Amino acid sequence: MTNQSSVWDRPTRFLHLGFVLTVTIQLLVSLFMVPPGSHHPSTFLEHAEFLVHEWVGLCALCIVLAHWTWSILSSGSASLGHLFPFSRDGLRGIAVELRELLSGRLARGGPRGGLSGLVHGLGLVAVSAIAVTGGMLFVMIPENGDPGALAHHIGDLHSLIATLVWTYWFGHIGMALLHQFAGDDTLRRMFRLR
Known about the structure:
Elements: H1 10-30, H2 44-73, H3 80-83, H4 88-102, H5 114-140, H6 149-181, H7 186-191
């Protein structure tokens, strides 16, 4: 039987699954997508890739809003205090975990605060920033015509944040696998649906 304190609550698990699906699709589609306004006419496939990016991005934005709402209302593993443990005890715990990590000891994974909670909080901020800038571009870029200078600047910011999200995505998967191989059973505990 799994210890209840080692299991994320159901809404957090579903929100995480939503992020896994939407962010992964977004990142992979962005590798092949040609944004509108490029200097050549887009093919059917390029147009379809951009539409997928737009609509899955809007789904990601909805998940971001749902996650922030849940984090504000929750007192568990998705709470703001868990994601941003900036209290004296929280910062002390992060310092201890960082020293242990630098000594080659991996802290136990799971839905507890500390360094892992902070990393999840920073990931939520990065995904929020890319979803919000993408939502702004969705509203600002006309179907045909020049989107304007502001939209270009927001597009540049969106691309810059995408680099951070790619880095987070690889790091997060790597740490989840490291915890899994260390015996934490992190993946099953996060993705079990019952």
